[in-house]
Amino acid sequence: MAQAWKCAGLRWTGEGPVLTWAGGRGSALTRGKRVAFAVAEGGVRTCVGARGHACPVRAGVTGRSTGARCEECARLDRAHSVAADTIADDPRPYRVYLAWFGPGLVKVGITAYERGSARLLEQGAVCFSWLGRGPLMSARRTEELLRAALGVPDRIPYAHKREVRAGLPGTAAERAAEIAELHARAVALGGWPESLTPEPFRGVDHAGVFGIEGDGRGPAAVGEVTELVAGGAIGGALVAAAGPDLQLATERGVVVLDTRLMTGWELVSAEGEPCAVPVRELRRAAGVQDGLF
Question: What is the pTM of this model?
Fold first, then answer.
C-alpha cells in the first residue's frame, strides 16, 4: 500500500511556496514542477485541530471546508487569533498594510512586524505597501479608522481574487496606482494613534513571484477545484501560485487548486491519473477581456 501523507498547508518562504506535511517535511514548489496526488480510497477528511493540538474526537469535516476544522476547534482557533482581539497585551510590534489584489480589490490589514511580508504572500496580495507600525492595539485602531473613514474592507473573499487574477494591469506601476492613492488619503486623515509610526509609500509587487506576469506567464485558469473526494486524483505542471492557490496545467486545462482543501485528507502519490475531482468553471470578473477578438 502506498504511503499516505497529511498536508499541513501551503507556506511561503523567501524561496517561494512550500507544501508542508504533518511531521514537519516540506515540498518546495517551482514553476513547471509536476504536482500530483490522490485521496486514499475510502478516505475520510478529519479535523486538523487547533493551535497545534489534535482534534480530541477526530471529527469529520466536509470536503468543501477551507478551514478543515470542526465547530469546536474552529471556535478555539478563532478565540486565540489576533483578529479576535483577545491578546491585547501582545508586546510585539505590528504593521498596518494596504494590499491590492486586482482592480477595485483593496484591503487594510495588520501583521506582526517579525513576519515581514509573509502574510501578504499568504493572502495572494499582488502588490502592497506598509502604512505604519506600532503596538498591536494602535495598529488595530488604525485599521478600524481606515475602514470607517475610507470604506476600505479588512477582508476580501478568495473567490473574488481568483476572478480578477487573469486580467491584471501589465505593469507594476499600474498595479500599485490604487494603493498609492489610498495611502496618500490615509496619511492625510486625522485621528491616528500617537504610538503608531507612519511609513512612506513603497509599493512591493508580487506578480513576478506568483508567476502571473511577463513572458513566463502561463495560460489563464479555466476552472477551480471545489473539493477533494475519496478516491479522487489531480495532477499537473505548476503554472503559477498565489496565496493558497496553485494553478495546475491538467488535461482539462489550467485548474486552480486551493491547497486549504488538501488539509485533513490522507493523500498518496499519483502519476498519470486523470483529473478526477469536482471542478467548476472559473468565473471572470466583469470587464476582464479574454483576448483581442
Answer: 0.90
